[in-house]
């Protein structure tokens, strides 16, 4: 599993307006069926491809790279000068910052129970060197402690900070849900497609393993498996879990994973996470070269199989002819024809902006416009000297100021990542790189309409970033001094809206399990499909990787899809 930790999933280009270092050559070259050809950073004249993908986020790159693996002529268009969307990295003064995902597990795992991103990388023949670890620091109203993953270590923390009743309830919870994990993980995400071919690539192919899982669970477990697509809170309530710490901790995990609390997250997502974090021998992983290494691996896979990536290619609109999506028009007026399909990796709201008025039914447009949104972010990126900082500093820190306000309250939860702890190459010698943020809880309404050059904006920026500064000082200790930071950048919801091209700077749809479902990947417009965090399975690195794979699978014959599954041993 690659956890999302709500906010390690931004979209498109750098959060800050500064001159980027030169793009690595692998990002401005591409391959084609005619051999390796240098590609310009933007298209000139009319061009065409089987499939045009809008956006190089994780979902778009997974989709494009798999299509290339299937032998399709595909081009991925990126508005900015860096690929990666949510997972891109940027560099200032020798500090390499993650703008998005920073906590992963299962990146090197293989087989049916691997997470979707790992399965895509496997299909592309790409490896991703990682550092492993098994703990993070938490700062709660009850106290500060090192939280470890695994089946036994967390019990010690519960005993100390929450008491015997919490230990009993945690044992009860694990005993009920871990057996369900075999059902939740029995169907490889890479086997899913968005048409009836799924009966062959998934249902029939994995029927024996699914049946084996249900038999292993027994009647009671099989009955519990029917709750996989229901809110996780229903499982908690059915077990009569009452301990406040347990309820709060579960809400925190759900919110960090998907941006909603336990009453809004699918049980399948939480059970998958529990199986990855609380089974014997489990570890977390961080790419040695930062989250940008994930992007580089996907780009390598795309190019290896003849796919093309075009940077600085801003899509102005999707072109509709005779009711079908036939290509895209770039901001400079250039037209790129799509012989088979256009795939949008933009959010549902931003995809609407790319379409001509009247192209979609009013009911569809109204459905998109009334879909609730997660709030936005505050960000703090720091580069500083490691002198005076503890040698045993953890890579991740989570600060919860007040349980009573709820984990989804603004200015209440701060997440901190110091990836240079595990990957010193991300900072100059003797330095650390840090990313702190308020995860999807910053109200856009506080910032709407402000002039970014105004004193009012600067004052609000200073006020709303203070909670992150205090959290960093708490995590790093007295050896850290603000004034010694060599790099200090604050991002706001307006930063998100402007540079990440996100409607209202949003994190994504706030669709709660049991109250709604994430849209599928097709649209009312033939040959226009969507992937990313506005589509099934939803928000998060594993989810968007799966969405990209599902779209790619759906655009090729069942026979090719099955051949791929055979080739990678699924």
From TrEMBL:
Pfam families in alphabetical order: Amino_oxidase (PF01593)
MF terms (GO), sorted A to Z: oxidoreductase activity
GO biological process terms held by the UniProt record: carotenoid metabolic process
Top-level taxon of origin: Eukaryota
Amine oxidase domain segment(s): 58-553
Classification via SUPFAM superfamilies: FAD/NAD(P)-binding domain (SSF51905)
Protein name: Amine oxidase domain-containing protein
């Amino acid at each position: 599993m690659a956890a999302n930790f709500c906010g390690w999933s931004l979209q498109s280009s750098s959060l800050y307006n500064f001159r980027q270092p030169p793009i690595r050559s692998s990002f401005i070259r591409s391959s084609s069926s005619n051999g390796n050809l240098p590609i310009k950073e933007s298209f000139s004249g009319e061009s065409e491809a089987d499939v045009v993908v809008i956006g190089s986020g994780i979902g778009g790159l997974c989709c494009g790279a798999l299509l290339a693996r299937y032998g399709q002529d595909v081009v991925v268009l990126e508005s900015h000068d860096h690929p990666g969307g949510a997972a891109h990295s940027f560099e200032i003064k020798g500090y390499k910052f993650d703008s998005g995902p920073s906590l992963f597990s299962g990146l090197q795992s293989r087989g049916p129970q691997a997470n979707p991103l790992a399965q895509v990388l496997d299909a592309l023949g790409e490896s991703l060197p990682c550092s492993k670890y098994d703990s993070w620091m938490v700062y709660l109203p009850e106290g500060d402690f090192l939280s470890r993953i695994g089946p036994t270590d967390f019990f010690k923390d519960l005993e100390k900070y929450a008491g015997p009743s919490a230990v009993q309830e945690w044992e009860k919870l694990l005993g009920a849900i871990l057996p369900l994990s075999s059902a939740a993980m029995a169907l490889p995400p890479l086997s899913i497609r968005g048409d009836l071919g799924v009966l062959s690539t998934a249902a029939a192919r994995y029927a024996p393993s699914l049946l084996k899982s249900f038999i292993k669970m027994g009647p009671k477990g099989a009955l519990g498996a029917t709750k996989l697509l229901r809110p996780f809170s229903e499982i908690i309530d059915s077990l009569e879990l009452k301990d406040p710490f347990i309820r709060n901790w579960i809400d925190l995990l759900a919110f960090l994973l998907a941006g909603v609390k336990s009453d809004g997250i699918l049980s399948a997502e939480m059970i998958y996470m529990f199986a990855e974090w609380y089974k014997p021998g489990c570890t977390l992983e961080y790419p040695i070269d930062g989250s940008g290494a994930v992007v580089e691996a996907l780009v390598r896979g795309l190019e290896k199989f003849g796919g093309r990536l075009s940077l600085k290619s801003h899509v102005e609109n999707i072109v509709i002819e005779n009711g079908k999506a036939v290509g895209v028009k770039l901001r400079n007026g250039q037209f790129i024809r799509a012989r088979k399909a256009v795939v949008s990796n933009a959010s549902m709201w931003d995809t609407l902006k790319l379409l001509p008025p009247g192209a979609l039914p009013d009911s569809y447009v109204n459905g998109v416009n009334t879909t609730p949104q997660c709030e936005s972010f505050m960000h703090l990126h720091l580069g500083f000297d490691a002198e005076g900082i503890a040698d045993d500093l953890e890579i991740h820190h989570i600060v919860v100021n007040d349980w009573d306000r709820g984990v989804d309250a603004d200015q209440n939860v701060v997440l901190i990542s110091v990836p240079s702890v595990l990957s010193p190459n991300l900072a100059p010698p003797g330095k650390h790189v840090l990313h702190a943020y308020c995860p999807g809880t910053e109200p856009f309404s506080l910032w709407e309409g402000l002039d970014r050059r105004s004193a009012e904006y600067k004052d609000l920026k200073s006020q709303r970033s203070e909670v992150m500064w205090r959290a960093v000082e708490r995590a790093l200790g007295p050896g850290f001094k603000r004034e010694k930071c060599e790099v200090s950048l604050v991002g706001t919801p307006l930063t998100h809206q402007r540079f990440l091209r996100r409607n209202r700077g949003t994190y994504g749809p706030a669709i709660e399990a049991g109250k709604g479902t994430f849209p599928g990947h097709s649209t009312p417009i033939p040959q226009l499909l969507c992937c990313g965090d506005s589509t099934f399975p939803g928000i998060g690195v594993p989810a968007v990787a799966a969405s990209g794979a599902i779209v790619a699978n759906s655009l090729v014959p069942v026979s090719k899809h099955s051949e791929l599954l055979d080739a990678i041993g699924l």
